[in-house]
Structure formats: C-alpha cells, structure tokens
Amino acid sequence: MVPDKEIIRFIKEHHVMTLATSVNDRPYCANVFYAWMGSDNCFVFTSSDETRHASEAINNKHVAASVVLETSVVGKIRGVQITGIMERPEGEAFDKAKSRYLKKFPFAAVMRLDLWVLKPEFMKLTDNRLGFGKKIIWNKEED
Predict the structure, then answer these.
(1) Can you tell me the distance from the alpha carbon of 116 to that of 88, in angstroms, rounded to the nearest whole number?
(2) pLDDT per position as a tens digit, 115-132
(3) Is 86 helix (H, G, I), strand (E, B) or coil?
C-alpha cells in the first residue's frame, strides 16, 4: 500500500532532504536534492561514494531523513520524518531512477550521477495546518 496522499503531496512540494546516517554509534547528516519516484515509493538522489553519508550507508543501509518547510509561524509547521533503507539502484531500476532524477533536475545531466534510493519503511508527517501537532503516520510493516 502507498503512503497517505498528504504525505506524498508534501514530499512532492519539496526537493531537499536531510539524510542521517550512523556508523559505530556516530551519527552524521547531509542535505541532498531528491526526486520522488511514486511508482516505486522511494526517493532518488545522487551522492559520491567519497561523501561521508554515502560511505556510511555502504556500511549501514538503515538511515533516517527529514523534509521540512522552513517557517517561524507555528500554525504553518509541516515536515515529514522518515526511516528506511538506502541502497544503489541497479539495472532497470537505475535507468528508471536516472530518468526521474533528470526530469526533476535537468541540469544534472552534465554531472556524474552516482544514484541512490531511499526506500521508506516509516514516514510521519506533522502538519499544523490540520490542527496543532497533527500527525499522519505510514508504516510499511502495517500495510
């Protein structure tokens, strides 16, 4: 089953995700541009193996992420928190991910694309516009 439409709508409205990795109990976070691949229920982004977050994901594929609306107005606070698996797409999945990423970020066509996907296992959207502290939760395990 797919995540709630409000979660997907929010994800599609944005393009920067804060990605958190951890190896040997040492957390790290990095910001990445992403494209949402709805047909595969995953985020696609590019990162070189030399980056700390990519090298850590090679050692521990379990990651966390967030996408937020930056605002100081409490009634407009919105954001999604995510946990899932970060991995490299291969073969047909790579071609599909590349096509989706380049559709969203055509300028990336001139770059080396070391693509990764984040496959969510849990997502929690907080949307204060729906009521203070309103949460919408999707859990892959419960689908």
Answers:
(1) 5
(2) 999 999 999 998 887 777
(3) strand
pLDDT band with cut points at 50, 70 and 90 for residue 1: low
| Residues 6+ away with beta carbon under 8 Å from 120 | 3, 41, 42, 43, 82, 83, 84, 138, 140
With contact defined as beta carbons under 8 Å apart, do 65 and 43 qualify? yes
How far is it, in rounded angstroms, from Cα 125 to Cα 118?
Answer: 17
Q: What pLDDT, in 10s, does the model give residues 36-94?
A: 999 899 999 999 989 999 999 999 999 999 999 887 777 778 899 999 999 999 999 99
The first and second tokens of residue 121, run together, are 């296992």
Q: Centre a 10 Å sphere on the Cβ of residue 142 and count the other Cβ atoms it contains.
A: 8
Region class of 32: left (phi > 0), else alpha (psi between -120 and 50), else beta: beta
Kindly report the length of the chain: 143
- Which of these, 119, 127, 122, lies nearest to 137 by C-alpha position? 122
HSE-up (13 A, CA, CB side) for residue 97: 23
* Cα–Cα distance measured from residue 14 to residue 12, given in angstroms and rounded to the nearest whole number: 5
| Cα–Cα distance for residue pair 8/116, rounded to 1 Å | 19
